[in-house]
Design goal:
Two copies of one chain form a homodimer. By secondary structure, chain A is an alpha/beta fold. Chain A has 15 helices and 16 strands.
């Protein structure tokens, strides 16, 4: 059954790769319309999932994410319309040059093919991921968490309704209609060469499983241990504002800061920054100097420095200038997103050059690590791997390229 | 020992990522000089390898590739100087834009990190691959075939001499100093996270092993089953010239054509093309129509259509126009390189758009599938995978990118 799904996706992908932008956009609009029209059916399916969920011993945050209401359904529909409004990423000419023999070489963006999305029980991922794959000309195979099975199925029905109205193949967006975990294993093996890329969306254990078992390329980030380094040349008010925003705006997202590093030559910054964090409701765990600076600072263990809290907790320590910060980040970081606060341009450029992370910022919050904030529109995730996609993965990163060469009879000399 | 090699490479990669173009180029020139100065030592090492090789039952072509002489040594040195002359691929700003809140986002090219190259007994790959990795700011771990062990070691010594003279870390280019095959397995596992990419260089069995066992990304092509499709609207002289060049210029390279497809509506083209191939010394295996057109055509088996001959043999058959050709290529091809010969622009554009290969050509020979012919300078290989690199892999494709964001205090609103 899974292999059949893969073959159908491959066939659909071939048609999608040639689909006109108008056809894809009209499908996205029809999907949004179908979602709005099916609000009652989606809520009924969601109620069924929630009933089962309540019988289990699930975390409140998990159930909260699973729960739909009219405004969340409207957000899904609106999200699809936003994707329709994006520039079509397929067919872009990303380079073009002429060879001395007259051949013209163009590098043009083409879809990747078939993308498998494995996600936990967040119903909105069904619409988001399906829409982004369609916009970028890829077929999608969606495998959501078993706890959102009925909701996902109801949403997928709306997506397929949109495909149908636009005359696109239904297999462009398929849902794995089984909660059997073996299906995930089959997807990770690539369904007989019929999956080109896997994108996991969910917690660390899901991502870790996908990364360790997948036999096809994966776009993912295991965790975001993001750092803010406050240099001695930082403006205090800016530093406080960015540190508190980077940590506390939303603590549960991967771009939230987990460690604050402060230049050991900046005694005047240490106390006020700690105070600002504590005042914002954050628990601060620190090294000896930080503990000495403020009695409310708890001791940080070695493990704390590489912990993604996703909560109102932060680790804070001193480093020997920007070099110390760069070394600390190389040792404990996750190559996701790091920021330096300084008024010294040379120090900033050193940090931006030497920190080996997907996103490096100067005088701005790590919470900008987001496709929407980059201007990409929606994102399918954030990648900390180094190949193909890095940072927020929007529709452009869901394409690859091919070389088209136009000649007039050129043969290669001996 | 292998783990140590990986750690040293990682440390070197950090330094290389920040190395100035001048330092890298001066190392490349010093390497070339050292290779020329060490001609006697390299030839002596090569003689040792050849002596061992002659005791084994090796193919003549294998021994031929293993054999060095003064002109081949000079070509190695010249190759390194050519790499020095290429534009530095690191630090290129590939995109830059400003967000409404004033943040400036730049996407800049950075090295990938550590690249493992696993190759058969071709001594020139040592210098080529080492030079390309250095130019792109990557550390290289070279694992050559055991039959060229002494030669590779002598060449590596010259590369390290160049690194030393330029003040770059010796671990920027390391050779695996064991012929134990387990070392390859360790590399394929990534040496504890210290290899970011593997590039295999060699025959199909080597590439197949790397593709099936590697736990890190691989740039490779298993085979090049390249097609030339001759449309009914093709100019006969151009078709003959390109078909013969695509197949016969060099039969042993991956871009040589293995299958010729001819429009079934082009009776006037069939016989002359077959005759031209046979006259050039090529064995033609064909379908019933081809056999009927020329008595010298041998019957093609089902297997022939997906065989990479790498020899003066070609499979030739008729298809129902360009649609038939596209379908045939999707079924039997290897997504490497395909060409259409036609004077009809619409037919050409259809082929260029719908054939899902790394390189698609119109009215030009498939033998142009080569980094040098693209203007990339030397290439480390050709990739038929879809992610990151596709087609010839030159120094630009050996880089990745990161986002640098420059702000002035921006925090993300709630």
């Amino acid at each position: 059954m899974m292999l059949e799904l893969g073959k159908n996706a491959r066939t659909a992908a071939k048609l999608l790769a040639q689909a006109k932008p108008e056809a894809k956009n009209s499908a996205l609009h029809a999907m949004a319309k179908a979602i709005r029209a099916s609000q009652a059916a989606i809520l009924a399916a969601n109620a069924k999932d929630l009933e089962t969920a309540h019988g289990k011993d699930l975390k409140a945050s998990f159930v909260e994410r699973l729960t739909l209401n009219p405004s969340r359904i409207e957000a899904m529909a609106k999200g699809l319309e936003d994707i329709a409004a994006l520039k079509d990423p397929v067919g872009r000419v990303t380079a073009r040059w002429t060879r001395p023999n007259g051949m013209e070489i163009s590098r043009i963006a083409v879809p990747i093919g078939v993308i498998g999305i494995i996600f936990e029980s967040r119903p909105n991922v069904t619409a988001d991921a399906g829409g982004l794959c369609l916009k970028s000309g890829n077929a999608a195979i969606l495998r959501g968490g078993s706890d959102s099975f009925h909701t996902s199925r109801a949403v997928t029905a709306c997506l397929q309704q949109g495909l149908k109205e636009a005359g696109l193949p239904l297999a462009a967006i398929q849902m794995v209609e089984t909660t059997d975990r073996a299906a995930v294993g089959e997807m990770l093996q690539g369904l007989g060469g019929n999956i080109d890329l896997i994108v996991p969306r969910g917690g660390k254990s899901l991502v870790a499983r996908v990364q360790s078992e997948a036999r096809v390329p994966v776009f993912s980030h295991l965790e975001g241990i993001c750092h803010v380094y406050v240099d001695k040349a930082a403006d205090l008010e800016m530093a406080k504002s960015i540190v508190v925003n980077a940590k506390m705006r939303r603590t549960g997202i991967c771009g939230s800061a987990e460690t604050i590093l402060i230049d050991q030559h900046a005694d005047h910054l240490l106390k006020p920054i700690i105070s600002a964090l504590i005042k914002s409701g954050c628990e601060v765990r620190g090294d000896a100097a930080a503990q000495k600076a403020d009695i409310a600072v708890k001791p940080a263990s070695e493990e704390d420095w590489s912990t993604e809290y996703l909560d109102a907790i932060v680790t804070l320590g001193l480093t020997n200038g920007v070099d110390g910060a760069i070394a600390h980040i190389a040792k404990y970081g996750s190559q996701h997103t790091e920021s330096i606060i300084t008024a010294d341009p040379a120090t900033a450029e050193k940090f931006l050059a030497e920190v080996d992370s997907a996103i490096v910022l100067h005088n701005a919050s790590t919470q900008f690590a987001d496709g929407g904030e980059f201007g990409f529109g929606a994102e399918i995730g954030i990648a900390t791997g180094k190949l193909h996609a890095r940072g927020p993965v929007g529709v452009e990163q869901l394409t690859t390229f091919k070389y088209q060469i136009r000649g007039n009879g050129q043969i290669r000399p001996v």
